[in-house]
Design brief:
five-stranded mixed β-sheet, Immunoglobulin-like, 44% helix, Neutral Protease, domain 2, 22% strand, single chain
Length: 852
């Protein structure tokens, strides 16, 4: 593995293409692929024929490509037969010519066959009531399951795709269809235009009974494709896509270059969302807004996911990372850009507050010993698969937001535009971007970026004193191993508690620095910095006393830092409990939504008994204050965020076993005879269904399951199954586990249902998973398969589970795929420490409040 010294050298110098990692010989580069596919939907197989034009860098007799799960019938180089040797372990095919080949351009033709997968890996199928569709999922390294090719991001080439498919179905690829000719057997031969130069993981092929709705956006045909009959449910996503393409055209200063952009919806849980250039694939949840089923939170999620994926059309597709160690820049940048665009078009959603919740999730993971640098060495496919985590996405987004604030929004945009122009249709590294930003900003942005991307962990900015504050830097850690001293050059924004302009300074090293502002100060004003803030009592008391007067972002940061610091032992957990208890009911609903999550999360650490009862009595009282303000039912003209907060507050109260909420949900459920479609709104249905499912009796469980089985709407079916997986009754939870591995749940949802059960019944789900792992993960991608058991174990608070997980992993998980194992081990041990050392502090504070 590459050392951190090598990583630092690459950061400073910026790698030439020859230095980019590869698992293929450096003897050839692709130029173009001409691919013809003939899928058999009934047999779940396909035939392929591909002509690979490549450039040999030197004379030789062979070329090596990636290939996996393919049966190669014949091959030829420049028309002459070639021998083929497959290496299943290396996922390569070596093609040897009958005579030596000169340096220069050659054409390899291959006839082969493959399998249509039942998991989102390569070409896969999604089944739903009345139909079957096909789609591809290639990131990071599964295009090799569709065709032999150079399957690495730096190996860009032009792709021309054609397919022989049933005449009744619609084929989709990255580029527009150029011709369609009938052939024998009720089939047609569809051909698509050649693509621009692009990386193999961005290739797409889909086939299904699609219905299309479209809009013209500055000469680009933007469309949503859904299963027939559901297209109008994608209208919201289509309108979002249209305005987002215009916004990104302007922001990046480069017009979207393809003639069309398709948003393709797949029923069930296909593959999240994937930024295939010109043909983005979405799980239906992220593309569907159904007036009967979708809430304000659902609309916001659809908008945000669409914004994220379309941002990739520039940052990821036009300019692509050179190798997977820079994945963070693709994903973190797209997340940051999506938040920016969402806030631009929907300021009423205050999406930057939602981004603070994502940042807090990254901070929690980054404060454990299992964390890793944002830019992490990636040598194998297994490591690349595990790079798709919260550090990559959420810390990446938070660091980019901090760097934009330090550089200045205008300079940042100028640098990003220069980066896109300089590397269009090519590959780039983080260092390339930082050079462009440094030049535009006239500031050493790259120095700060270096500190926050090449070393793991969370800075801790300590603020001491009231009238004359002093700032010092350390490291925040949730366990001892994560407290190893480190320093960062950390931009810190300060504002006086009394108000006034924000002043920024860079805190570096571990020597105290005086605050440039007099009086009590709020550190991390606006919460754009990536660090925790620890106030001593003199600095904390005046801020806590004026909690209600702080901007929503600073309330958010103060509360979540207080919780994290208390749970890690940096201060009393009572500080957080005191703050959340004093949060005004009129505080921003998104602040309340986040605290509902935290308050309900503390309950998970308790075992059933008097201690939990006491905590629940306090917690439900606090959350009911906020619920009473927004009410149980939507009000005419209410802000969307009131509805979003209501949904989360009701979910939290349901988790806390609140009798009033559960009784009201049951009353409404029974009033419509269990026919949830008769409830007055999607909002009402959402919380009533979820609450009844969580508290379900056997009769209620059966009734909801029957409703899921008889509905023809895949989204409705999926949500009922998901809600039932949160059931409290252990016997019903066991039943759900057994159902999850049958063919009854929606396509590709079995593993997600088991994980949902684990959130409430970790021991039950762990035992079941060990006994049934092949069946549970049969329809999951490679990342989910390797991380599934660790993720299930990670819900436990029992130290013995860590021992069991380690024993399991040593026998079943390769060393280079232990990333999620280490995360789960850290999570279990941290939870055990919280139960032992922090819950007594919660109990003592609750007891003190009850004393006369």
């Amino acid at each position: 593995m590459r050392s951190i010294l090598l990583a630092l050298a690459l950061f400073v110098a910026g790698p030439a293409l020859a230095e980019v990692p590869t698992q293929l010989p450096r003897t050839a580069d692709p130029v173009a692929y001409d691919l013809t596919l003939t899928p058999d939907l009934a047999k779940l197989t396909f035939k392929g024929k591909v002509a690979v034009t490549y450039e040999a860098k030197a004379a030789g007799d062979r070329v090596v490509l990636n290939a996996a799960d393919l049966d190669i019938a014949s091959a030829a180089i420049d028309g002459a037969p070639a021998k083929v040797t497959l290496d299943a372990a290396a996922q390569t095919a070596t093609f040897v010519a009958a005579r030596p080949l000169s340096a220069g351009r050659h054409v390899l033709t291959v006839d082969y066959a493959g399998k249509i997968q039942d998991r989102p890996s390569g070409l896969f199928h999604v089944d739903y009531e009345g139909g079957r569709m096909l789609a591809t999922q290639f990131e990071p390294a599964d295009a090799r399951r569709l065709l032999p090719l150079f399957d690495e991001p730096a190996k860009k080439a032009v792709f021309t795709v054609s397919a022989v498919v049933p005449q009744t179905l619609t084929a989709v690829s990255n580029m527009p269809e150029t011709s369609s000719q009938p052939v024998a057997g009720g089939l047609k031969h569809v051909r698509f235009a050649p693509s621009p130069k692009m990386s193999s993981y961005l290739l797409f092929f889909g086939l299904g009974d699609f219905e299309r709705i479209s809009s013209d956006v500055d000469g680009t045909k933007v469309s949503v494709l859904m299963r027939r009959g559901d297209a109008e449910k994608g209208r919201f996503a289509l309108n979002a896509a249209a305005e987002l393409v215009r916004y990104y055209n302007d922001y990046f200063g480069v017009k979207y270059p393809l003639p069309k952009l398709d948003l393709v919806g797949a029923p069930g849980e296909a593959a999240g969302a994937m930024e295939n250039w010109g043909a983005i694939l979405f799980t239906q949840t992220y593309l569907t807004v159904d007036p009967k089923l979708s809430t304000a939170a659902d609309r916001q999620t659809v908008y945000m996911v669409v914004a994220h994926e379309i941002a990739h059309m520039w940052f990821g597709d036009i300019v692509t990372m050179a190798w997977w160690d820079d994945l963070w820049l693709n994903e973190g940048f797209a997340s940051w850009m999506a938040s920016k665009a969402t806030d631009h078009f929907h300021p009423e959603w205050k999406y930057l507050l939602t981004a603070l919740a994502d940042k807090d999730q990254a901070l929690r993971l980054d404060a454990r010993s299992a964390t890793h640098p944002v830019v992490q060495p990636v040598e194998t496919v297994a490591q690349a698969e595990q790079a798709f985590d919260d550090i990559t996405y959420m810390k990446g987004e938070a660091v980019i937001r901090m760097l934009e604030g330090y550089a200045g929004a205008d300079a940042w945009r100028e640098g990003v535009r220069a980066h896109i122009r300089d590397h269009a249709y090519g590959n780039a590294t983080s260092a390339d971007l930082w050079r462009a930003i440094d030049k535009a900003a006239g500031k050493p942005v790259s120095a700060i970026a270096h500190d926050f991307t090449f070393q793991p962990g969370v800075p801790l900015i300590s603020v001491s004193g009231g009238t004359a504050a002093t700032l010092a830097q350390g490291r925040f850690g949730a366990d001892e191993a994560s407290k190893t001293p480190q320093t960062w050059r950390t931009p810190v924004r300060l504002r006086r508690l009394a108000g006034g302009a924000v002043q920024e300074l860079v805190v570096s090293g571990d020597r105290p620095q005086p605050s440039p502002l007099p009086g009590p100060v709020v550190a991390n004003a606006g919460q754009t910095g990536y660090f925790r803030t620890l106030y001593d009592e003199a600095a904390f008391a005046p801020i806590a006393a004026r909690l209600g007067a702080l901007p929503a972002a600073d309330q958010f940061g103060l509360l979540n830092d207080g919780y994290a610091l208390g749970m890690a032992g940096y201060g009393p957990i009572s500080n957080y409990l005191r703050l959340v208890g004093a949060l005004p009911v009129e505080a921003d609903p998104l602040v309340w939504r986040e605290q509902a999550r935290v308050v309900a999360g503390i309950d998970d650490y308790y075992d059933a008994g008097p201690r939990r009862d006491a905590y629940r009595a306090w917690a439900t009282g606090v959350l009911h204050k906020a619920l009473d303000r927004v009410g149980l039912d939507a009000r005419a003209g209410e802000p969307d965020n009131d509805a979003v907060a209501r949904e989360r507050l009701l979910e939290a109260l349901s988790q806390l076993g609140d009798r009033a909420v559960i009784a009201e949900a049951r009353r409404r459920y029974e009033a419509v005879g269990g026919e949830l479609g008769r409830l007055s709104s999607a909002v009402e249905r959402r919380w009533v269904q979820a609450t009844v499912a969580r508290a379900a009796t056997p009769a209620e469980f059966d009734a909801l399951l029957a409703l899921a089985r008889r509905t023809s709407d895949p989204l409705e079916r999926q949500r009922i199954w998901t809600d039932l997986a949160a059931v409290n009754d252990p016997a019903l939870a066991q039943r759900m586990l057994e159902l999850a591995i049958t063919d009854q749940p929606p396509s590709n949802t079995g593993s997600r249902l088991v994980q949902a059960v684990a959130a409430g019944h970790p021991d039950l789900a762990w035992r079941f998973s060990l006994a049934n792992l092949p069946q549970i993960t049969r329809s999951t991608d490679a990342l989910t398969r390797s991380s599934f058991a660790p993720n299930i174990a990670g819900y436990s608070h029992d130290p013995k589970r860590a021992e069991e997980l380690e024993a399991y992993a040593r026998q079943n998980i390769p060393e280079d795929a232990w990333g999620e194992v280490r995360v789960a081990l850290s999570r279990i041990r941290t939870a055990a420490e919280i139960r032992e050392k922090r819950l007594p502090g919660v109990d003592a504070w609750l007891t003190g409040r009850r004393r006369p």
